[in-house]
Amino acid sequence: MNVSKHDYDVIIIGGGPSGLMAAWAASREGARVCLVEKGAKLGRKLIISGGGRCNVTNAKEQDELIKQMPGNGRFMYSALSQFGNREIIRFFEDLGVALKEEDRGRMFPVTDKAVTVAQALINQIKKQGVNIRLQTPVKTVNYSEGHTTGVTLQSGEVITSSCVVIAVGGCSVPQTGSTGDGYAWAKEAGHTITELYPTEVPLIANDAYIRDKSLQGLSLREVEMTLYAPNGKKVTTQEGDMIFTHFGISGPAVLRMGHYVSITQRKHGGAPLALTIDLMPEKSAEEIAAESWKLLEEQPKKAVKNVLRGYLPERLIPLLLSLASIAEDTTLSHMRKQDWALFAKQIKALPLTITGTLSLEEAFITGGGVSVKEIDPRTMQSKLMEGLFFAGEVMDVHAHTGGYNITIAFSSGYAAGTNSARKSLELLS
């Protein structure tokens, strides 16, 4: 194969976080790079990430980062050692994007605008001479004699290269262009695509208080949720903020729980799962019973629902009292301490029946993808097809929300870009 006659050294498919970083890394190595994006804009997923603020990475130590990557996180050890969160922070600060650390180690631009991050990266790859082709959908990745040779566009145009990086994302958030295109190209090269499922996804519940929408829109801060398998075995506990919705629950802690719901339901034939919400994780049931009973004693003639205002979110009070079989208008003189102990237990374990998650398209992240057993974790090169590289969510690797998925994207993008460039230059020599 005469690589010197190729149009480019590296073609990168996909202008999301991993593709942009791959373009920067490959062009920095001196490779001739073409970045192909089927949409009209680069960085669409970057611009909507973090609620439009772009949570660029997480400041926690590497081992903690890996712990927050339940989908094959260990695969990322080598890539994170080359270009981890410290390098990501330094990279953006060198581009003039000042960052700040918020709760749970989340790093954001000081401007609170994702476009600041996206534009800095796009400007830099332009400066480094990357040829950017927008509104250019790829039809196939081309292979010959065990090696990539380039791509064929939907228009029929063929662009040749010695290396190709597939960085097109999964199937989630399809409005950003992630529609699962990369799986067919990987399969054509002999790769296994593991089962796809929604992760980092809101949960559906069918309890009466969800169906009647009485709590819709109610946000709760710093709760603790525990998920149970159908056999009663505890699956996981997640902490953080949540919100009740018209279909169930959402919010950061719920999105993290989404991974475990998907996995557990797949194991148990889609059976409903029990979930409990601890509304006051910092206190025991006994402490809650004692301090709330004291409130009743201070206002003995007042209806219990009124006494509890200020102690609990007002919209939750009728539900919690009902679950403990206590009438809202009851006063202290009609109350038994054992009834109140049951009320305190509801605060520690508000029950929900989870029937499923929202769809893969409605999830924030796709679980499953190109099997990481078939990808070199150091270089992101295919073990089956020379010159083929992968980056980001197209691979079977994912994390919880909080800057971890974008860290995977940037880190794997750096490895794929750097090593595809080196591979192409090695083939030239």
TrEMBL record:
Cite the InterPro entries for this sequence. BaiN-like, BaiN-like_dom_sf, FAD/NAD-bd_sf, RsdA/BaiN/AoA(So)-like_dom, RsdA/BaiN/AoA(So)_Rossmann
Q: Organism classification, top ranks? A: Bacteria, Bacillati, Bacillota, Bacilli, Bacillales
For this UniProt record, give its keywords in alphabetical order, as a comma-separated list: FAD, Flavoprotein
List, separated by semicolons, the cofactors it needs.
FAD
Organism domain of life: Bacteria
Q: Where would I find the RsdA/BaiN/AoA(So)-like insert domain in this sequence?
A: 197-365
- Asked whether the UniProt record includes NAD among its keywords, one would answer no
Protein's UniProt name: Flavoprotein
Instruction: Give every RsdA/BaiN/AoA(So)-like Rossmann fold-like domain span.
Output: 9-418
